[in-house]
Amino acid sequence: MVKMKALIPASMLVLICTSLVLSGCNIFGWTAGDDSVEGYMAKGKQHMRDGEYADALIEFEKALEAEPTYADARYYHAKANVLAAGFDIGVIIDELDVADNEGENLPFYSPEPGMTQAENLAYKNRLYQTNLTVIDDLTEIYEGNATGSFGPDDVEVDLLVSTSVVAMVGFLDTDRDGDIDEDDLSIEISSIEDGTYEFQSIEDFFDYDPGGDGMAKPSANPDTMGAHHFNELLLWAEGKLVNSRNLIVSLLQRMDSELDIDEIDGLLINFRKTIIKYYVNTGGEGNPGDVRRQIRLTESGMIEEIGTPGDNDNQGGKDDEVWGAPESQADSDGDGLKWEDSVVLDI
């Protein structure tokens, strides 16, 4: 039998293989260098497959730091955030996709079964923080600031869900410090007969100084600072709802989403109607309660004006019973109802 001579000496083969591995250029499936974007992404995806979501998140964070405009890094960073926080997107969608039964709490406002009050608060904060991060990541893709394998159509549904969640859960962050914790006021929001919602315990806002110690404080007179702060919270939440509805309009035009858009759309519209009727007229033109409380949101999501700005009690006097007026002037028409120009009587 004739023996074939090796075409390449063994020592040379070892040297070539070593060089290929070190250079990262090979055809045998070796991974990219650990400190490259491709390396971070490969390790992150492997951690995802292994169910190691916290470790995956670390790798995708490294990829984002190295290349902030890489859409794939942003997409997987958002996905790993949700999974590492222990959330199931299906459960979140199910909670958004609810029938508006009278007396039912707004989604995410019911206590989570089996949790203590402290655990429930921590859960809500985790839900809030996670979806804020998802919004940051996916918005960059949706607006075209990040490019790669994922485009606007790929993230539209996820962005809608996260924006809707933040609009609702973020209302619990009453001091607007970015965390839902024991320093925030407790608010319950339950459905009423017309499909909109009722805010409960909000009277604490009007004895509340958000720039103080984060706790309610007693006041003998209406606290206009608290009312201004309440308006700012409403404006923030309404802005998120408008963003969500814009995404819904886009999805309806495409008509290729498996999400039950109609149910979620109705929920968002009714919550926005609620916000409109709770703006506080703090007096003077330009405050949200002066104009915004005199408008109606139609079923199509359009806004139409009703009544006269500043005259919510329809008594002909503008801001004559506005919130913050001295108690002696709080019932100028003598009908026994105080501060009527800061209360919507019919919307």
Map the helices and strands.
Layout: H1 10-23, H2 37-49, H3 53-66, H4 71-84, H5 89-96, H6 117-142, H7 152-169, E1 188-191, E2 197-200, H8 224-254, H9 261-278, H10 288-291, E3 295-297, E4 303-305
Antiparallel strand pairs: 1-2, 3-4
Summarize the structure.
This protein is mostly helical.
Could you give the distance between the termini?
Answer: 99 Å
Query: How many domain modules?
Result: 1
The overall pLDDT average reads: 77
**Counted beta strands:** 4
Catalogue the unreliable spans.
1-31, 209-220
Most strands sheet: 2 strands, antiparallel
List keywords for this structure.
single chain; 347 residues; mainly alpha; two-stranded antiparallel sheet; 4 strands
Describe this structure in words.
This protein is mainly alpha-helical. It has one domain. Helices cover 46% and strands 4% of the residues. The strands form two sheets. The protein has a two-stranded antiparallel ribbon with strand order 1-2. A hairpin with a 5-residue loop joins strand 3 (295-297) and strand 4 (303-305). It starts with 9 loop residues before the first helix and ends in a 42-residue tail after the last strand. 37% of the residues are buried.
